[in-house]
What we know:
By secondary structure, this protein is an alpha/beta fold. Helix content is about 35%, strand content about 25%. The chain has helices at about 80-95, 95-110, 125-135, 160-175, 180, 200-210, 225-235, 235-245, 260-270, 280-285, 290-295, 310, 315-325, 330, 340-350, 390-395, and strands at about 5-10, 20-30, 30-35, 45-50, 55, 60-65, 115-120, 140-145, 145, 185-190, 215-220, 250-255, 275, 300-305, 370-375, 400-405, 410-415, 420.
Amino acid sequence: MSSIMIKNAEIITMNANEEIITGDIYIVDDRIVEIGHSLSHSANKIIDAAGRTVIPGFVQTHIHLCQTLFRGQADDLELMDWLKQRIWPLEASHDEESIYYSAMLGIGELLQSGTTTVVDMETVHHTEYAFQALAESGIRALAGKVMMDKGNEVPIRLRENTKSSLQESVDLLEKWHGYESGRIQYAFCPRFVVSCTEELLTNVRDLSAKYNVRVHTHASENANEILLVEKEHGMRNVVYLDHLGLANERLILAHCVWLDEEEKKIIKERGVKVSHCPGSNLKLASGVADLPGLLDQHAHVSLGADGAPCNNNLDMFNEMRLAAIIQKPIHGPTAMNARTVFRMATIGGAKAVGMEKEIGSIEPGKKADLAILNLNDFHVYPSYDIDPISRIVYSATRADVESTIVNGKVLMENRQLKTIDKKI
Length: 424
Ligand code: GUN
Ligand code: FE
């Protein structure tokens, strides 16, 4: 048994009442056991969190860890040119080692910036080595190999045979899904409609139902991508996915920048999860997604940084800030307020991965996935009436993260934090 006592913290719980309290958090093994004042259990590790803020770990619902090493490769291009000229040739050049290190580098950046769960889309080959990195690192993840069995523009090395794409995915699922009591799960990753045959997509639909796992794909990101889908299928992305029976509560759709009313209705009615990637949507000149519109109709929305080429460092603080500020000139100052964005980054992400009973908030019984922030280093006039969530969204950086804990294990700790380790 291992235990951690976090003392005297400001705790942003994100429980049903979104309470912010001051007190202690007692963790035994992988779970939060008790939250309260002056708790007196003995623990293997005591963390003095006076003056610190504890938040639920961020849940990022769209990332390509295989692209971490390609940072600096999205500059001044839009989606289809970027994929053809840069990303697909680079993904085709990956080997077992580079996939592993690309994942490890990305995971390091995620943990440093307070992300405790990642939904990861890998490339066609060597996904086994990304799973090894995820397993060794201790982060929580839903991951899968990308599937692409179509497209003249796709390098020949990445173009798959439908049957082997499905078989390789199932082999990975059977090996890794449920690893370490479910810390790692499989998610099928058909890349986007443009690169997948109907046979592949309908098989993915059936396999996702059979194994009860997520399907993670891109949709309606860019005007040219939408044109390609309309030209071939005579339908818009989400309508086509619905037509094939894929639009359901297990589907995570990255981007959704250009949804029409019919697509929004399908997303809402079928319980599809949207992963909003504001940094990537800006850098690839894709557009500004109508998040206020999706939120108005109570669609499920969460946040992701996409790959490092689109945002540089997989940092949820950047994504939260962008998600809030890009809407303000269009919809006014309160359209995407700090709480809405913070909710998307935490409990919203937990809902996207179907784990809202396990992660996304700080409550007894939940998994101990959290980050400890030091917001007092800000060179600001002390103003206690400011909501700490607003300070996090608009001012915090990853340098303010002092510790990241996943499944009750401290995976990142900075020397400024006072801790006592002892045998009990
Ligand atoms: N659409 C298809 N593949 C990709 C990708 O790798 N990144 C982004 N942003 N969009 C995509
Ligand atoms: Fe992406």
